[in-house]
Write a structure and sequence with these properties.
Elements (H helix, E strand, L loop, with lengths): L8 E6 L5 H12 L8 E4 L5 H11 L7 H25 L4 E4 L2 H11 L4 H12 L6 E6 L2 H5 L13 H17 L3 E5 L4 H16 L1
Parallel strand pairs: 1-3, 1-4, 2-3, 4-5
Helix pairs in contact: 1-8, 2-3, 3-5, 4-5, 4-7
Length: 206
């Protein structure tokens, strides 16, 4: 008897305004087909009851949080999501499409807020590293263009252009040092960006 198909864990990440949510929804539609469970679409931090409460705390600009504390809270929300939602979905043969994961914490806290690249990755790997994504796609967009797409102002979106430039650099550094990460240019039309993401998904399947 053929064993049940294991789902794939696919992550889309990138600076605020790069189009993650749009592309995640498109990817879910592209992966939805007859005979296969509908992919699970998650946002991070969030998705679980605990994660959504931590998300509200993390994004609230009125609450002071040291950068290292932010890393710990992101790791806690991520671990809960992995245990409560991601692991069961993958075991049931369901693909998971997640907006944000380790690259975001690396770029925002590790690089832009200077917690330290290695310190952040060591903590995330130890406490929120299993199951690991099968593919991480980082949408690479010029910070100035991304700024024109941002409509909200939370703890991070409200920061200045220099901060977001450091974040963008952090994402590129993550892609350069981490196997299995694809850097996709996000300057094109939504259809062009979607096609580039689907090429990476297909390549990762081989």
């Amino acid at each position: 008897m053929e064993s049940q198909r294991r789902g794939r864990f696919l992550v889309l990440d990138g600076i605020d305004g790069c189009g993650k949510t749009t592309q995640a929804a498109r990817l879910v539609r592209a992966l939805t087909r007859a005979g296969v469970p509908v992919p699970l679409h998650l946002r991070e931090p969030g998705a679980t009851a605990a994660g959504e409460r931590l998300r509200a705390l993390l994004l609230d600009p009125e609450i002071a949080l040291a950068p290292a504390t932010q890393v710990l809270l992101f790791a806690a929300a991520r671990r809960q999501m992995l245990e409560e939602l991601v692991r069961p979905a993958l075991a049931a043969g369901r693909d998971v499409v997640c907006e944000r994961f380790h690259p975001a914490t690396f770029a925002y806290q590790g690089v832009a807020l200077e917690v330290g690249e290695d310190a952040v990755l060591e903590l995330l790997t130890a406490w929120a590293g299993d199951p690991a994504p099968d593919l991480v796609v980082i949408l690479d967009l010029d910070p100035e263009l991304a700024a024109t797409r941002r409509g909200r102002s939370d703890r991070y979106e409200g920061r200045d252009a220099r901060f977001h430039g450091r974040v963008a650099d952090g994402y590129r550094r993550y892609a350069a040092r981490t196997p299995g990460v694809a850097l996709v240019r996000a300057q094109g039309t939504p259809e062009e960006v979607e096609a580039a993401i689907l090429r990476e998904v297909e390549h990762a399947r081989r």
